[in-house]
Amino acid sequence: MDNELNVEMQLAPFPAAELREAAFEGMQMLFHIEALGQPAYLRLTTYFEVEDTHVAFEFQNLDAAGNPVGEPVEGESTWEELENDVTWPKSMTTVTETSLDVVAGHFECWFYEVKIDSDEGPGMIRAYFAKDRPGPPIRFEQFVGDELTYLMELVDGHGPSWEIDLGEEE
Asked: What Rg do the C-alpha atoms of the chain give, in angstroms?
């Protein structure tokens, strides 16, 4: 990144190199997701190829019992793309430190609060990044006005697939 970009954009909580260092093949993250007008669901993200330059992953939506819903979706991103996904204009972003309890546990976090403007009107993004877990936010909220339109929260993860608890009976 050049200096002009650094001046205009808030730095991401984790640089690409840290994201790469923390990732491994078989890593999984399970999120609870609520989107306005849709039933709540789970999303299981699995990293199946981790390279120096990129990660290949799969998203699988699940119902509350952990059963697959629909077909899995595969994707690929460079580490820089993942870093840039959580880079917002500095003039619209406030970063503080906080603690947060989610289903996955208690975390010390960087809290990003970002003013946004969408087709539906002005709003806010609130993203909580666990300081000791480089990767996506452990909680992500998007508001239009005062209405919560999207919520994503870590249920379990950052471990190998055999450690993810989908609540299934053994």
From this structure: 16
